[in-house]
Structure formats: structure tokens, C-alpha cells
Amino acid sequence: MPRNAARLIDIDVLLIGDQIIQSVALTVPHPRMHERAFVLRPLHDIAPDLTIPQRGAVSALLRALPLQRITRFSEPLTWI
Prior knowledge:
Elements: E1 21-22, E2 27-28, H1 37-46, E3 51-52, E4 56-57, H2 58-64
Antiparallel strand pairs: 1-2, 3-4
């Protein structure tokens, strides 16, 4: 499937323990998760002491990011 093509579902695998996987089909840790506050903020909320292999502590990565606005949903999402 071409990169960024339309798909029925898109699941990003962020981490699998402390494993490092580099293949055509899968890269773990996710290669850009350390650049995205919308990934790091919730991850920090549930695992503040977590370290991303080859990147560092989630807390330090989050502090180092330029300001990125994250909007929380005011109501739970409902699925149709």
C-alpha cells in the first residue's frame, strides 16, 4: 500500500516493550512519536517514567518539544 493512501483503519504501533524493530512493514518505536505532543502527553500521563528506546525519557522529550496545542475532548467519543 502506498504511504498515506486511504485505508479502512490506521493503527500506529508506538512501542513493544523495549524492542527495536526495523523492517519494511514495521518500525518500532514509532519513528516520529518523540516529535508529537499528542502522543507523548497521554503516554506521560499513564507512564511518566517510561523511556523510549534510543530516544530517552518521555518526560524529557515532552519538555523539549516546541509548544504544540493539544485539545481534549469535552465528552467521551461515541462510535457508530
